[in-house]
Amino acid sequence: MTVPYKRLNKDDAVVLLVDHQTGLISLVQDFTPNEFKNNVLALADCAKFFNLPTILTTSFETGPNGPLVPELKAMFPDAPYIARPGQINAWDNEDFVKAIKATGRKQIIIAGVVTDVCVAFPTLCALEEGFDVFVVTDASGTFNDVVQKAAWARMTAAGAQLMNWFSVACELQGDWRNDMEGLANLLSQRIPNYRNLMNSYSAFTAK
Amino acid sequence: MTVPYKRLNKDDAVVLLVDHQTGLISLVQDFTPNEFKNNVLALADCAKFFNLPTILTTSFETGPNGPLVPELKAMFPDAPYIARPGQINAWDNEDFVKAIKATGRKQIIIAGVVTDVCVAFPTLCALEEGFDVFVVTDASGTFNDVVQKAAWARMTAAGAQLMNWFSVACELQGDWRNDMEGLANLLSQRIPNYRNLMNSYSAFTAK
Amino acid sequence: MTVPYKRLNKDDAVVLLVDHQTGLISLVQDFTPNEFKNNVLALADCAKFFNLPTILTTSFETGPNGPLVPELKAMFPDAPYIARPGQINAWDNEDFVKAIKATGRKQIIIAGVVTDVCVAFPTLCALEEGFDVFVVTDASGTFNDVVQKAAWARMTAAGAQLMNWFSVACELQGDWRNDMEGLANLLSQRIPNYRNLMNSYSAFTAK
Amino acid sequence: MTVPYKRLNKDDAVVLLVDHQTGLISLVQDFTPNEFKNNVLALADCAKFFNLPTILTTSFETGPNGPLVPELKAMFPDAPYIARPGQINAWDNEDFVKAIKATGRKQIIIAGVVTDVCVAFPTLCALEEGFDVFVVTDASGTFNDVVQKAAWARMTAAGAQLMNWFSVACELQGDWRNDMEGLANLLSQRIPNYRNLMNSYSAFTAK
Amino acid sequence: MTVPYKRLNKDDAVVLLVDHQTGLISLVQDFTPNEFKNNVLALADCAKFFNLPTILTTSFETGPNGPLVPELKAMFPDAPYIARPGQINAWDNEDFVKAIKATGRKQIIIAGVVTDVCVAFPTLCALEEGFDVFVVTDASGTFNDVVQKAAWARMTAAGAQLMNWFSVACELQGDWRNDMEGLANLLSQRIPNYRNLMNSYSAFTAK
Amino acid sequence: MTVPYKRLNKDDAVVLLVDHQTGLISLVQDFTPNEFKNNVLALADCAKFFNLPTILTTSFETGPNGPLVPELKAMFPDAPYIARPGQINAWDNEDFVKAIKATGRKQIIIAGVVTDVCVAFPTLCALEEGFDVFVVTDASGTFNDVVQKAAWARMTAAGAQLMNWFSVACELQGDWRNDMEGLANLLSQRIPNYRNLMNSYSAFTAK
Amino acid sequence: MTVPYKRLNKDDAVVLLVDHQTGLISLVQDFTPNEFKNNVLALADCAKFFNLPTILTTSFETGPNGPLVPELKAMFPDAPYIARPGQINAWDNEDFVKAIKATGRKQIIIAGVVTDVCVAFPTLCALEEGFDVFVVTDASGTFNDVVQKAAWARMTAAGAQLMNWFSVACELQGDWRNDMEGLANLLSQRIPNYRNLMNSYSAFTAK
Amino acid sequence: MTVPYKRLNKDDAVVLLVDHQTGLISLVQDFTPNEFKNNVLALADCAKFFNLPTILTTSFETGPNGPLVPELKAMFPDAPYIARPGQINAWDNEDFVKAIKATGRKQIIIAGVVTDVCVAFPTLCALEEGFDVFVVTDASGTFNDVVQKAAWARMTAAGAQLMNWFSVACELQGDWRNDMEGLANLLSQRIPNYRNLMNSYSAFTAK
């Protein structure tokens, strides 16, 4: 009953960003556009901050799905980038799986568009192959709440752990003292109320 | 722990459309009428597109429940059609189960009205008999969100996988290259934002 | 994996109505008052219609919690009626458990106020003692949606099946032909859209 | 106090469809994509059915805003079509206003994307020039409910009448007997529950 | 600025119930079916209780719209009953307007299905002719909240007063002492929480 | 067009608290019980803090409606207290109106249960007699959002100003320097986030 | 009846940003923190882009309310900045009103925290003095939707026009050709779906 | 299948209150501030009432996160109080775990801010070490409903039981007769509708 807690570890985690493309994102309706953009970039910030190997992939980026959002491309210029020629499930693309396995890591942090397909399918495959999978629910979007919750149920039943970008950041950080200023900067950019707390604090303690 | 991923396969799947009748649909309140109609027809489009054996059934169609919606009848003129004389659970009707077993397929894709009865009961029976069952949550409707979520919980606990019509389509397709134009047409009819992406793309690339 | 489907059976089911009291009901905020009243009486109608043994219990009915709603008392004049002197968990009251066991039935259909206490506690005890428990989610009310969903999660994890009064009615009925008019009358009283379908049907076919 | 009721009249009404473009529609978040598409096409159906002069206009259709949705272009091949070179408020475009005035009609039925700009600005101008303006709220979309309701308040305060496509259809029709079958067909295409009523009716009365 | 308060008066009010038909009610989605049924019957209860002249009308009741809901017919067997042969706006039917004027009353209490058409059109006509119009918002239903709120705005701008069945009852009653038991009975039937208060009160004071 | 701004003035305002009774409050469903209790007591705090004459009234407090909530009685032991023998509209009770007029004040701040009756009726009467009326929307409760918004529309059309307890407090205070600590204490009791700001501030500046 | 349309004009408009302080913003609950931050900064972008005179004011910024959010201070380093010593209504501060009048402009664009106080009070005063006031609803925040809508009603009744930052931008711009790239940049920063359209467009037309 | 029901027991339970700090609470958006404050204090009331050992901990309380809310400090002056120097997961702090183990208790009742981090991380660790963990969902807050539900799923999958403060109170109390007045007082302070029931009861039975 008491299985060990599968805890994210920055030395064993790899981040997969799947199909965050300029066209596909118009399908996302379970988050407002501003919330979703902020969450996706926040997860990317975490990948950078913790130096996690990160893998980018797109589906038909030369068609209506559109290119990867340029911010992600810019943040990870040297990351493996797999423009899939047709496979809907990224796990069906050999290069993608190879790139993951090449990292030697067993903890997969995944987010994408849309949740029920581009996230769920590789999640189910990765679990089957023995990876631990951490789905970043708030950086993954889809058509509506019914589809979101059904996809969550399918992935949960298969053993995926549901997380959000903030809990990913905190579990990887472990202790504020590892880099207090770095984490504070990241949170200040992505959580307006946290930024406000910091600004109030600075103002009050400066007196 | 790492059981194989139960993945939909167009050679092993059969579609059951249960009690989408003109009267019963007025009971559906967990989707707007337009969303529900679109989702049901989209699932039917998938069944056609992938040439899946499809089985139609109705409950008391000569009474207030009303006839099957004519679009479904028209789309599947040669499908087994079981007008049940009284069994609420379609699985209690021998002809219905025979029709399923005659297909030799073990993956059941099911949708119907209402979710907690016409979908849940045969789902629980099919799971008991060893079928894999994929419930299409957005093509199945019921009284309200409380009933929907309770029915989902009951079916999930018994091993059903919750999906939506779009993830069914994508899992069956596997690779866009299997028939890019066909799938694009299907999505264009049923997902307005996808249609808009395609039309923008055509306009821009025509220049 | 393929455990038998636990299906409600009118010869093996007993109904527990827990603490539907005139005062306590003012705590229920996860349903509107009209919806909740209708659902509770619909479940009571089912108990009557299928001649299920039914057990009533109240908590401190002489205090602010108030008496059992009179409609329930009137519908089940001969049912075991346990006015608990203090036990919050009805299962802690020997008379209540004795009354259940006296029926010899192993399927418990339970509803009450509030879901997280008066329903959840006896549900967890009954499951522990080997009963099958079917929680009627829409005839059970509590403070808000967060509490409702947390209570559902706790009961589901322990093996309870979540249902609603309509799916209880349908699973017990099995086949419309067992008593078509009786069930139609019941549904007509409690589901306005069903009543409308019947009235339209009568009008149209009378021509 | 008792001013005459400004009632839509098919001999005095003109329909303005403003900026329903494939790109801009991705900004609409106060309706689901399916609902919005259905409402816009339903309003177009009304314009056709009542032979109302209809004027189409777009904003920068050669840029990211995208082309007019093809269905509208196809439905009104001979309608004045003003591709505005830059004016955000269509009323600032002389050709647009000329086209309206050329119809000699004083009742403007308007819908567009986005409500707070493309609908509100010409509405306020038209009211100022003495037109009666009927805003079709459900065929006009914008960013969210706050923006929608603020735009409604601004237009209402200036004398616009808020309507929806169905009430436009009914006010123009006046009497079912003017063309019962025609209106029934239109409603059957756009209101699934109405279609179901008709199909139930046909089935029942055919007996 | 200080115009006299237009207060409902049981000697000057007439009730119009417009198109509460078994088919049309399936279009109502801005209230749950149970809430809507309860509200409509509660308004009818008020008309009976205060002996208000009541006029019933239907639209094409021999077609898919279906018959008037039988409860209303049964409650007002002697009321003027105008089955309109085709006019969508009941005010366009001479018999309907004659029946209203025959009562000699100037305060119109109106409810119907759907709000934006069957309620709004006669409301606007009646206001134009100098009647005071009190729209019973919760006994009038339509497609969704957007349509509801747009229809409210149009009617309010024209001078209609928005009410609900409970405020109609209370304004007509004026003083509980006019018939305390009668009003209490009415409220007990239609407001579950009020019924519970009464039952708790009876139980406590009986001690 | 530019009428003077009707601004609350602590020397010209009187507070009316209408029917906040232990039974009637169970009818309030447009606020959660905790929010509503907090808002009502906050408004009472304001009346105390600004020394506004305050008038309490109840409807049938010896019946199921129950007594005035004890907190209000305790806060205003010397306030005029009119237990109405039967008038639903408090303005129909001579003692109530006399008590208001005895204050010589022309600005009425009113809140009560339920909004559409106990607040709306006296509001409409007071406006008719030339008072300025400020309805405290968040200290007034009723059955649901539809009823709330309809009542707001009726009162707004008659000239009432819609406010909330916080804006009442701020408009009466005018300048923080009139009694900074007093107002801060009041807000700290009733607005948890304000309390947190103050506590953070104290902690940070104490360093 | 046909009063001239009050249209924003960049030569006659002044922007007031009231009390967007790091502490006070924690009171805002009618927008998510991300949406609110984005909207406020978007409005500030507009003020910069159109070179509108802009006036900043704060309430007790040395206390728990906290300093002005630093972004606003940084964007408008030379703007009049009135740190009010105690006046809750900024219009009660002579320096603030002087600063507005010094601009010689008659169109006030206002936003602030909280809507019902810091926005509503100066809005009502400005209207009384003959200014045209345009309330930017989505850059103004408050406690909840009830308070928001009540504040809107009070301001609308007094003649304020409700807008949102996007409609402000579009009405001031008038014609895209005035500075297409500038406006496109602004929208791309603040509307993720617009940014996506632009990025898709660039990708497609680059081919 | 029938594992024993893990029932809270006041002799085996310990309460952990994690990071309810004046700054951090501004991040909580899945409850209104009033509801959240009430729930947290209600849970603290339970800890006091049942004399449960209670452990307080904070994260960086000298920084922007702010101090523990003073009410909690005041209620548990002698409780172990661990101001963590940097560990995000309280379980990573040896003093915290030692304090728990020093109680000798195996049932952990936990609540905190934010749910997905400060509650979820120690919950997962405690489960791994064999504790039974009862998460008090309504005294734990986070960014939004998506994050809340994802965190619930992760904790449930690991074996945590989801509860709410009221069910914790009731399960610990067991029987009203253990201290009827004490529990009644607690509920009266925290559940307004319960308080109203008690006050009505007292008034009615005093007659």
UniProtKB/TrEMBL annotation, chains A, B, C, D, E, F, G, H:
Gene3D superfamilies: Isochorismatase-like (3.40.50.850). Its EC number is 4.-.-.-. Keywords: Hydrolase, Lyase. Pfam families: Isochorismatase. The keyword Lyase applies. GO terms for molecular function: hydrolase activity; lyase activity. It is an enzyme of class 4 (lyase). Residues 14-164 form the Isochorismatase-like domain. Signal peptide: none annotated. InterPro entries: Hydrolase_YcaC-like (IPR053152), Isochorismatase-like_dom (IPR000868), Isochorismatase-like_sf (IPR036380), YcaC (IPR048239). PANTHER family: HYDROLASE YCAC-RELATED. This is Putative hydrolase YcaC. It comes from Pseudomonas graminis.
